[in-house]
What does this fold into?
Amino acid sequence: MRSNMYLLMGRKAQRENRRITLRTVADETNISYYTVNAIATERIREYPKDVLAELCTYFQCGVGDLLTLADVPDLPVEGGK
It folds into this structure.
């Protein structure tokens, strides 16, 4: 998964004419800084639904805007060549 959090932070900052940092996101969403940082830097293994919902509400976006599927190699077809 690829995180678009920095892009969304930039858009929100521009919309609201203010600086938004990871700490700002953490404070304003009541999500731990560690979790916000882990999502932004793609070091998280599992994405809690409640956290995704809160971030999507905060950024006024959908999950597909926040996270995108990274290139995944094709899996071999069973019994195929």
